[in-house]
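Q: Hi! First time asking for a complex rather than a single chain. Here are the components, and I think there are two in total. Is that enough to go on?
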Amino acid sequence: MTVTTPAPARAIDNPARALVCRGCGSEFPLAPQHACWQCFGPLEVAYHPDALRSVTREQIAAGPPNLWRYAGLLPAGQDPATRVTLDPGLTPLVRADALAAEVGLRARLWVKDDSANPTHSFKDRVVSVALTAARAFGFTRVACASTGNLANSVAAHAARAGLPSVVFIPADLEPGKVVTTAVYGGDVVAVDGSYDDVNRLCGELVETDEFEDTAFVNVNVRPFYAEGSRTLGFEVAEQLGWRIPAQVVIPMASGELLTKVDKAFTELVAAGLVEPPDGGWRVFGAQAAGCNPIVAALHAGVDEIAPVKPTGIAKSLNIGDPAAGRYALAAVRRTGGWMEYVDDDEIRDGIRLLGRTTGIFAETAGGVTAAVLGKLVRTGRLDPDAETVVFNTGEGLKTIEAVSSLVGPTHRVAPSLRAAREAGLLGRA
Amino acid sequence: MTVTTPAPARAIDNPARALVCRGCGSEFPLAPQHACWQCFGPLEVAYHPDALRSVTREQIAAGPPNLWRYAGLLPAGQDPATRVTLDPGLTPLVRADALAAEVGLRARLWVKDDSANPTHSFKDRVVSVALTAARAFGFTRVACASTGNLANSVAAHAARAGLPSVVFIPADLEPGKVVTTAVYGGDVVAVDGSYDDVNRLCGELVETDEFEDTAFVNVNVRPFYAEGSRTLGFEVAEQLGWRIPAQVVIPMASGELLTKVDKAFTELVAAGLVEPPDGGWRVFGAQAAGCNPIVAALHAGVDEIAPVKPTGIAKSLNIGDPAAGRYALAAVRRTGGWMEYVDDDEIRDGIRLLGRTTGIFAETAGGVTAAVLGKLVRTGRLDPDAETVVFNTGEGLKTIEAVSSLVGPTHRVAPSLRAAREAGLLGRA
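A: Yes, that's all I need. Here is the structure of the assembled complex.
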């Protein structure tokens, strides 16, 4: 708990109704199932429209200072005692005037800083919702396939809840992400292969008898997991005083985060909690040049995502075969947005730009987003006079290698006034 | 800003009254002065008793979800527009039943997790208050002497506020702490010497004409800086439902944090905001074996702190000549507490213990505190039946070297079911 908030007087009901196939529209009961038995398409949680409409701004404001304030819009955890949680969310929305000036935006610019979550990435949101659903389904062990941040979050949540965990990561991950996962004491399996290889292995393991009791947050309980990302959209709207910004710039790995922020905005409007902005909102996606299959499809004007073999420093975005890529494409096209990508040097510059102008130290994914923001302004894709929110999804300390050769002490001196003077710290020597 | 909270209807007055010498009791006006002109003793902020008594729990609860909710108890920043801040504070108070069981505590145990602050240490508290006071005094540049965390926080706050910064650090700091400071774009001066050497140099620089416009947060505005630590005590009491715990275990570098948490509890009682616990509270201090001058004085039964040359991995606690050591001794003796120290191996074990049982990854200072907690229970100094709060003041990602050789992947496999089976992940191979 963060602060002792009185429980709401009336219990909230679970607003979720069913799992619906994003491909063929088939419906299934709420259960640990992630693919459609008809067409093998991915499943998504659908809600009772009346349940969403019954949620009020006042009810949300009276909730805890974390994502569980949106329990009336989530598919699990309505009873606080059932939550598996480090209490993520309600991360800062930071006004970024200096960043706006540097990239050439004239309208208000905000950074939604999800490095402020308990394990310092937006993954705490999806994990908290997924593990709460998983425990309600009776799972007794938790697992994931991860590019690093997800493993951190699953292992930490498991430690807090006293659940055994086993996380699967590519063997070449940044050391920061491996150590901070292993320190929680669960099993950490390094897999010789890419994230896509790790993900495939987990898809096989989940079908074995030995893993019958195990919730893989991004495999068998994925529909519940993915819903946690919507809280980023809910928070942005609430923190802006219940408004939706005209433009959002979002990093893409699987593409799911982008689609869920867009879904959150749509739901808030349908629930009567916000009015849409004049002209609607526009959604922009960001990838790294080393792994840009979704951007490439948009630029080529096609619907099919051609998988790539990821390279480059933005490892948390290195999903070469992005599960939600086609839905991200659809959201960007529907809203009149765009996507861009940047190379490793631009990513490093983006990290430093964000640090210098906002006091936020982002991981490589945040550097991607900051750099893409600039590129979208320069290329005329982003309206410089429309309010914009950019998403920083992770913490610079986890990918310190990206900038450690570029920044360091600006001076080195002996501990004396004379040495300080000779180093130019007191004007001319 | 974190969330749009309506401003309180009535402006809060600054409750600070004067600077008072902790040595001889001389009083001075509120100004950037840190030492007594009579006896050279350190100065501390004193408050109007009536002002503190006018603060109510309801007023605090209506404030923002960060340390500025206690503006009525702070010496700066009553007008939100004047704050230089990343909005630190209101960090999680985590119930730690599994940790209690491992160390042999039967009563409730909590971890106050200040790694959740914006730059991931408790230093954001003191910096936010110090820089707010400094800007009100007209300073146009900010600086500090730092063991790392303070430099991070000063540089990040300066970047957010658009102020130039220059931070002074020992040249042998952990790489994580150097990079995350330098990324904000200010000057970073590596000094060939210990923290005490760095601190001495800053004490000389502050007297030069060239640094006349510069607020050294822990030198010339130190009395305001130190007051920020009290918010840790305020929060613990508020988060416990306006109660003071029977026992607190606090890491010591200068010793100031311990004295300020004790002062916060005393003030809350005087202000009528809480009742003291039956039998009062007891304050316990933690240091590392490589730098334990305050503990050594307590164990020797003397008042004078003999300076040491620090060694060991807990660099954020490595202050060999601790400015507030005698006041920490006095607080521990007055309340009937105790102090202990632990060696580097125990610190590493403490980090892993905390991670495994709470899902919190602490820096070395947190490992010190967790390990000292266990030692205090084992040696009978801590009452195992009295509610206890331990303070984690920093983030494990900043001192990853401490445990990187001890934890890592538990398995390494090729991406196939067969490899997973041979590695024992599916029972016997």
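A: The first strand of chain A starts at residue 16 and ends at 21. Let me know if you'd like any chain examined more closely.
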